[in-house]
């Protein structure tokens, strides 16, 4: 269900197994860090890291809907030029990386 919804937005689903979906938002002009930053700022924050989405039995449908709406909104803003190009900082978002 989740992966199929991403395909509707023309986001390639790189693989899907055991409640994990690997996706690539670059066809929309977006990157995973940009989506993760905006998802963290939602009224009910969604914690994302990289291109892997983990959907658990306790993941609410509202969280999935919020994520898909966020991607749709960002894609629309990006295509209309309202969303500025992202300044990519060399920030390591991997929580297991040495600091």
The best one-word shape is globular
Placed side by side, the strands forming the largest sheet appear as: 1-2-3
Look up the CATH topology: Aspartate Aminotransferase, domain 1
Distance between the termini: 37 Å
Order of helices and strands: HEEHEH
Residue share in β-strands? 5-15%
Helical residue percent band: 25-40%
Q: With helices defined by DSSP (H or I, 4 residues minimum), what is the helix count?
A: 3
As residue ranges, the low-confidence spans are none
Radius of gyration: 13 Å
Largest sheet data: 3 strands, antiparallel
Mean pLDDT: 75
CATH architecture descriptor name: Alpha-Beta Complex
Q: Mind telling me the CATH class?
A: Alpha Beta
SSE class: alpha+beta
Number of strands: 3
Number of domains: 1
Question: Main traits of this protein?
Answer:
99 residues; alpha+beta; Aspartate Aminotransferase, domain 1; three-stranded antiparallel beta sheet; 3 helices; 3 strands; globular
Write the layout of secondary structure elements.
Blueprint: H1 2-8, E1 13-17, E2 20-23, H2 32-40, E3 52-54, H3 61-80
Antiparallel strand pairs: 1-2, 2-3
Structure described in brief:
This protein is α+β, with helices and mostly antiparallel strands and 99 residues long. The chain has helices spanning 2-8, 32-40, 61-80; strands spanning 13-17, 20-23, 52-54. The chain is globular and about 35 Å long.
